[in-house]
Amino acid sequence: MATTAAPAPAPVPVRSPLPSSLAGRTAVVLGGSSGIGLAAAGLLASVGARVLLVGRDEERLESAVARVTAAGTGAPAEVHGMPADVTDDDAMEEVLARAGAVDHVLMTAGRPARIGPVTELGRDAARDAVAAPVGAVLDIVRAAVPRMEPGGSITLSSGILVARPRPGMAAPFAAAGAVETLARALAVELAPARLRANAIRYGAIDTPLLRSRYGADGAEGDAAIAEAGAAMPLGRFGTAEEAASAAVFLMANPYMSGEVLTVDGGQSFA
Questions:
Q1: Which residues, other chains included, contact 232 with Cβ-Cβ below 8 Å and sequence gap of 6+?
Q2: What CATH number is given to the structural domain containing 243?
Q3: 31 in the Ramachandran plot: left (φ > 0), alpha (ψ -120 to 50) or beta?
Q4: For 128-179, what is each residue's pLDDT tens digit?
Q5: Structural domains in the chain (count)
Q6: Considering only 89-103, 118-132, 173-187, which range has the smallest mean pLDDT?
Q7: Which of 9, 138, 153, 230 has its CA 20 to 30 A from that of 127?
Q8: In whole angstroms, what is the distance from residue 230 CA to residue 228 CA?
């Protein structure tokens, strides 16, 4: 008896690749209470997207929601916040259940890297430094994909250590490389569901995390960051908004998948 082949899934929806096409779409921003995640949330709200911010610090998250709401279009932006640890699988399930149908997921949350020669890191610390970041991404993907709409996207975060490794950074370098490889693998695996996956390789960006490394606070901090940034190829560090705009581009363009974009102002080649 002949069998009937299952009909091919519909192609990915054709939409304008401009950010305006994100109006009314739901974006979950993990690590959205500061830095690049917060900047991305503001850009998304400014084009009318519905935004759910996720971060560990509840007080900082409330401040971020207020700031992003103010960045919205003419009508009040639909912006929500939910405190959660992105490494907590159960918490991520709860976050995504609250979000409902999800169009885009941006993961910018991270944790301090384990720095030091691999021979000086304990076995458990070395393994955790590589496995934990990738495991967190996999857990989020597993929770998000069943709730995502065709044409949606997952955007992961990497860094230029992948292109320019330094001594003592083998563990975070390995984790960042694994995240980029995972983005490409997910692009293939999720394509039949008409979902997309990409990664962004960031250089040094002027965020609270970078400022903490320079001990830069207030007006004196601005001067310290300007002085340090003068050594960059373009004479300054990138802004969080400049970095975040790459994520918005990847969400908006329905034909971008399996890509690793670099946003570093030429730092990879300097």
A1: 204, 265, 266, 267, 270
A2: 3.40.50.720
A3: left
A4: 888 888 888 999 999 999 999 999 999 999 998 888 878 877 888 888 899 9
A5: 1
A6: 118-132
A7: 153
A8: 5
pLDDT in the model for residue 187: 98
Stretch 79-103: mean pLDDT, rounded? Answer: 91
Q: Please give the full DSSP string across the chain, using - where no structure is assigned.
A: -PPPPPPPPPPPPP--SSGGGGTT-EEEEETTTSHHHHHHHHHHHHTT-EEEEEES-HHHHHHHHHHHHHTS-SSPP-EEEEE--TT-HHHHHHHHHHH-SEEEEEE--------S-GGGS-HHHHHHHHHHHHHHHHHHHHHHGGGEEEEEEEEEEEEGGGTS--TT-HHHHHHHHHHHHHHHHHHHHHGGGT-EEEEEEE--EESHHHHHHHT--HHHHHHHHHHHHTTSTTSSPEEHHHHHHHHHHHHH-TT--S-EEEESTTGGG-
- Whether residue 41 lies inside any domain: the answer is yes
Tell me the residue range of the domain where 25 lies.
Answer: 19-203+238-263
In a domain, 131, yes or no: yes
**What is the token pair recorded at 73?**
């279009």
Is 208 among the domain residues? Answer: no
